[in-house]
Amino acid sequence: MDRTSDVLIIGAGIVGSMLAYLLAQKGGSVRLLDRGQPGGEASGATAGLLTTVAEGSGKGPYLDLSVQGLTEMQEILPQLQAETGMDCWLESHPLYRVATNEQERDMMFSRYRELRDQGGGEEWREPEQLRREQPVFSPRLTGAIYSPKEYHVTPALLLKALLQSIRQRGGVVQENTKVINFLMEGRRVIGADTGGERYYADHVVLANGVWSPELLQLIGMDLPVIPLRGQLLGIALPSFQLPCLINTPRGYLVPKKDGHIVVGATQEKAGFAKEVTIAGISHLLKVLSTVPALVQARMDYTFVGLRPMSRDGMPLLGPLPGWEGLSVTTGHAQHGILLSGITGRMMTAYLNGEDPGGLWKHFQVQRVLQEKAETEGG
Ligand SMILES: Cc1cc2nc3c(=O)[nH]c(=O)nc-3n(C[C@H](O)[C@H](O)[C@H](O)COP(=O)(O)OP(=O)(O)OC[C@H]3O[C@@H](n4cnc5c(N)ncnc54)[C@H](O)[C@@H]3O)c2cc1C
């Protein structure tokens, strides 16, 4: 077996798999290794929202990245679906960002004004208008930002299609293959060691989510990425169809093609404890108060995953200073599905010696390593 490739990617979550897909599309030879099942960690979350405003992305480069993230996904997904013949459940619905009390209403209304000033297509809805438009809503809601069209996808299906396309283009995907160390020649990383096998490549990319710091510690690097735990529920109510996406300050509801409604998601700093908890479920149940009919729904599944979150909450991309042949792409936190296309494109350009574009400088990993060195220095 040939164990060399142009690029070796460690971690087959959505971030690593999207990168492998985009590299393979450009004709590169890629090998993607995962210690478990591809998509078996954070990327298995079923919500798959591609919304840029739902969680309040603020302003500046991060908002620009998320807007470009959606554009990329709108380009990549139809192409991927056509190429593989696989449906990733890319859907669009209107989104209501609802307030459940007066305080939330004030917060929501000032957010609405910000969005309006940015020239978005959002509109404000008073409670009566809201109920007329969507009778499923609770009469207790105090207002909402209405957005006519927002997108979501089902990540497990997206991942399946990406892996099929990678393989069709000659790329290699290996599951149950845990990287335990790097292969090095001086300050150049030349591959990865799995204990049993050694894999060589011109470039190694770490895309192993919250476990990236673990591997980087082996070469003396301290990457500030921590797990942000997320729990969600899959519920269903026969003969009921949720006609829209709903976002509240506590969480969201996303209707899926198979009749499930995804209720997500908690955001918890709980270390590496990947557990569904009573506190998490009771938090999510509060989101259901926006649509009273849903208290009758059947609870079909729970999910928990660890989102990789950097110190400033933004992705960490690009070369690791002081090393040749080694890069990282992680820290996508709550928006890894939305941002996988745009960060994959920027990484592909960088790895192919092309210009990754104007946003690149804002997201390079170097920024957090510099911060750390400066903090240590005084
Ligand atoms: C409940 C929940 C809801 C979410 N909802 C949304 C949403 O609506 N929209 C959105 O955009 N994002 C959402 N996210 C965030 C998104 O899922 C993550 O940002 C994204 O999945 C991170 O992808 P990743 O590939 O970096 O990490 P992961 O999916 O964690 O993948 C990392 C992979 O690396 C592998 N790995 C680890 N160590 C090694 C090793 N040593 N060797 C080989 N392989 C290794 C792991 O097995 C894993 O498969 C949600 C997350 C959660 C938890």
SSE arrangement:
Elements: E1 4-10, H1 14-25, E2 30-33, H2 61-84, E3 91-99, H3 102-117, E4 123-125, H4 127-133, E5 143-152, H5 155-168, E6 172-174, E7 181-185, E8 188-193, E9 198-206, H6 212-217, E10 225-236, E11 245-248, E12 251-255, E13 261-264, H7 278-287, E14 298-310, E15 316-319, E16 326-330, H8 336-351, H9 360-363, H10 366-377
Parallel strand pairs: 1-2, 1-9, 2-6, 3-11, 9-16
Antiparallel strand pairs: 3-5, 4-5, 7-8, 8-9, 10-13, 10-14, 11-12, 12-13, 15-16
Bound molecules: flavin-adenine dinucleotide (FAD).
What can you see in these coordinates?
There is one protein chain. This protein has helices at 14-25, 61-84, 102-117, 127-133, 155-168, 212-217, 278-287, 336-351, 360-363, 366-377; strands spanning 4-10, 30-33, 91-99, 123-125, 143-152, 172-174, 181-185, 188-193, 198-206, 225-236, 245-248, 251-255, 261-264, 298-310, 316-319, 326-330. 32% of the residues lie in helices and 27% in strands. By secondary structure, the protein is an alpha/beta fold. Bound molecules: flavin-adenine dinucleotide (FAD). Residues 10-16, 33-36, 40-43, 45, 47-49, 178-179, 207-209, 211, 215, 230, 232, 264-265, 303, 305, 307-308, 330, 332-338 line the site of flavin-adenine dinucleotide.
